[in-house]
Amino acid sequence: MKRLRTICLIAIAVVLLVLYPVWTTPSTAALPDEDAGLVYMPSQFSVAETGDRIEALLGERPLTLFARIDHAANAASVDKTLLPTQVLIFGNPSAGTPLMECSRTVAIDLPQKMLIWQDDDSQTWLAYNNPSHLMDRHNLAGCEQNIEMIGKALQSLAVAASGV
Fold first, then answer.
1. Which helix H or strand E contains 58, and what residues bound it?
2. What is the domain-level CATH number for residue 92?
3. Residue 86: inside a domain
4. Distance, CA of 6 to CA of 8 (rounded, Å)
5. Per-residue pLDDT tens over the stretch 127-136
6. Confidence at residue 12, expressed as pLDDT on a 0 to 100 scale
7. Which of 10, 24, 28, 91 is the most exposed place for a label (fewest CB within 10 A)?
């Protein structure tokens, strides 16, 4: 009986050691890799506060907020549950129009968007399209300077909103 108990304890220990990495994998494992064309950033704030911070920052810059979509509220309206998830859609025609002059298909990715969500570990994340991915996706030859400028503006906005 004592030997059976020892074998069971060893078996349980082995199972725990094998499964431990799966149970403790950080939420970043759920993020697609950078090749997905998105830039990811953790936020020190809740989804709502991060969104409020983005909205306030847009008001201080020459950017127009077109929409703020609360996917969790929309899910609740059809009796579904979704952790806090919001998308802010914003832009500036003086930045977007030159891109569309390079390639009209980039309009499918404009105006710019920022996604904010809470993961299963209660970490808030912010993501946005990597402008260099748009460069490749839409063959924006001749728009390198515009892409660089937009990339810096998005990064500055994301850093200020997330407190990182």
1. helix 47-60
2. 3.30.310.70
3. yes
4. 5
5. 999 999 998 8
6. 46
7. 24
